[in-house]
Design brief:
By secondary structure, the protein is of the alpha/beta class. A six-stranded mixed beta sheet has the order 1-8-7-2-6-3, sandwiched between helices. It has a two-stranded antiparallel sheet with strand order 4-5. Helix 1 packs across helix 9 and helix 2 crosses helix 5. The termini are far apart.
């Protein structure tokens, strides 16, 4: 895998630049490992324009888990210990699947159809908007291939580790298990790589992307 830890703002494919006369239904895929700062980048985009819709696909996954048909399949696959007060406890389920690529794959097989339905519906209802698709597993989906712009968010390992440990209240060992089970990204698969070590710089980079690449009125 290409080392991207010291890259700050790397334009990989100049063909991503898009000039349009009005807001269109543009899809931007945003990926990154745990603690990289996908949410930070998305929040900076959201702060620029009301014409931007942020879809956090992890949250879509959490929402479909308690559909009756999904809930039954998850219990059959992972057992009743993933329940709290008769609903799927995402923290319990998360701890189980983060530790195993096989279990993560099983979870995806059960939930993806329902998640895709939700994502398609949101996109369809916002045809005049810019859609941010935020998910570390996005490259495994057709949404990644069909995206108009693909952004990889990265930060040095130690920085990501400290952020994730603080945010998710996990140990270093738990983080490293998560890291080892995370997808590996090839920066050449992305149009832009942003190193999110410093938030002030990241905010400026996001604004730059928006001003020069997303919309020209």
């Amino acid at each position: 895998m290409t080392d991207i830890s010291n890259m700050y703002f790397y334009y990989i494919n100049i063909s991503y630049i898009i000039q349009v006369d009005e807001v269109i239904n543009m899809i931007i895929g945003i990926c990154g490992k745990s603690g990289a700062g996908k949410g930070t980048v998305c929040s900076f985009f959201k702060g620029i324009s009301d014409d931007i819709i942020w879809i956090d696909i992890d949250k879509i996954g959490h929402s479909v888990n308690n559909r009756e048909e999904v809930k039954e399949k998850l219990i059959q696959c992972f057992g009743e210990n993933i329940l709290s007060d008769e609903v799927i406890d995402r923290k319990k389920l998360g701890k189980m699947v983060f530790n195993s690529k096989k279990k993560m794959s099983l979870l995806e097989d059960i939930t993806w159809h329902y998640m895709k339905e939700e994502i398609d519906y949101i996109i369809d209802q916002n045809k005049d908007k810019i859609i941010l698709l935020d998910w570390n597993l996005l490259p495994k989906t057709t949404f990644f291939k069909d995206a108009d712009l693909r952004i990889l968010v990265d930060a040095p390992l130690e920085e990501r580790k400290q952020r994730a440990m603080k945010r998710d209240n996990i140990t270093e060992k738990q983080f490293m298990i998560r890291e080892n089970n995370a997808p590996n990204y090839e920066c050449l698969d992305f149009d832009i790589v942003i190193n999110n070590k410093y938030k002030k710089l990241t905010r400026k980079k996001v604004r730059n992307i928006y001003d020069k690449s997303i919309i020209s009125r």
